[in-house]
Design a protein that fits this description.
Ubiquitin-like (UB roll), L-amino peptidase D-ALA esterase/amidase, 6-stranded mixed sheet, elongated, 2 domains
């Protein structure tokens, strides 16, 4: 619903709750930014207090409720208002906020809106909730992963400041599978590691990043490995949607680094390329300038031998053992014009490998971020 936080009149308040308002197993992964917002602090505290149980998640957009001096108190109040209307304990409500930092959040619109929000709860309103948590996103982001007898659903928002660990992003996932809070915590952390934590739009980490997973258990116990795989698939899908809708992006880019000394070094090298403004600009210009990639790889602080490096775009190898090689220029140009680029860098030193999801850098990114309103 629109409660009055966004001057535009667009939806700015969403609520996810268990059907009977009872607490269920829950887990959360949060930003590692030390300047974390009040909602992050409150949600983490609530999960600790309840030993991983939650009945609801209330989310507002249009204001990050961060660095205001009273952001923790406001986050607690939002939980209290939602709990009162839902008939559950305040500690069983988690809270997320997204929007501009450093601007006080007026809780009166939230207070007025929550009763209507609770009254409107319905099992087919996921799309509306996904729209209500958007900020600079241009499209809502939803996912559904169905398995035999059980499923996972989720929504997310995020279009910039997408960097480790996580992003200016929020995600709420729900499943009817049964699992303990401890198992959910491990599964969610693993799912985030290779999705939201393997993505970078602009190398900036925000203050409100939150991924929450709630499990009602109504479908009964499922194989933990299958649940982990489904959660990972849901997270990966949402991450790809966010990267494709990044501010000003015209291309999503997968940077694969193989042949590194180990996986950690491969990850560092892939991230160095993914966050290079020079590389991003060349992708926007559809210029397969492999020298920029080689330069970034060489400055990533990892084991590196220039004469061992091979680089390719979309399966077209343009450099082998550190020098340019003849290649199909037509196939290369066709790949560079596509909305999804696949880049492979082989360091030729070992078995380490990693993938980072990123995007190009366009004029529109600057237009979006040169002002706060």
């Amino acid at each position: 619903m629109h409660c009055g936080i966004k001057p535009s009149g667009n939806p700015d308040l969403a609520l996810v709750a268990t059907e009977n308002r009872a607490p269920v197993a829950a887990a959360g992964v949060f930003t590692q930014n030390l300047a974390c917002a009040g909602p992050v602090q409150v949600s983490k505290a609530h999960l600790t207090t309840t030993s991983g149980r939650a009945s609801a998640v209330i989310v507002n957009s249009g204001n990050a409720n961060c660095a205001t001096g009273n952001d923790v108190e406001v986050a607690r109040y939002m939980c209290a208002v939602a709990a009162h209307e839902l008939g559950c304990r305040q500690e069983h409500v988690l809270v997320c906020s997204t929007g501009l930092i450093g601007i006080p959040l007026d809780v009166r619109p939230v207070q007025r809106g929550v009763p209507s929000l609770v009254a409107a709860l319905a099992n087919d309103w996921g799309g509306g909730a996904a729209r209500a948590i958007m900020t600079t996103d241009t499209v809502p982001k939803e996912v559904s992963v169905r398995r035999e007898g059980w499923s996972i659903g989720g929504m997310a928002k995020g279009a910039a400041m997408l960097a480790p660990n996580m992003a200016t992003m929020l995600a709420v996932l729900t499943t009817d599978a049964e699992a303990s809070p401890e198992v959910l915590r491990d599964i969610l952390r693993a799912g985030v590691m290779d999705s939201f934590n393997a993505m970078s739009v602009d190398g900036c980490t925000s203050t409100n990043d939150t991924v929450v997973l709630l499990a009602s258990g109504r479908a009964g116990a499922v194989d933990a490995g299958e649940l982990a795989a489904a959660v990972a698939a849901a997270c990966a899908d949402l991450a790809r949607q966010m990267c494709g809708d990044a501010e000003g992006a015209t291309k999503t880019v997968e940077v694969h680094v193989v042949g590194a000394a180990d996986d950690d070094e491969a990850r560092a090298a892939a991230r160095k390329v993914a966050e290079s403004q020079l590389c991003k600009c060349s992708w926007y210009g559809e210029d397969p300038y492999w020298g920029r990639l080689a330069s970034e790889l060489g400055s990533a602080g990892i084991a590196f031998e220039p004469d061992e490096v091979s680089i390719g775009y979309g399966g077209v190898v343009v450099a082998e053992r550190g020098v340019a090689v003849a290649h199909d220029e037509g196939a290369l140009a066709a790949h560079m014009a596509e909305p999804h680029l696949d880049i492979r860098c082989d360091l030729g030193l070992g078995t380490g490998s990693a993938v980072i999801l990123t995007n190009d850098l366009s004029h529109a990114y600057i237009d979006e971020n040169m002002r706060t309103s």
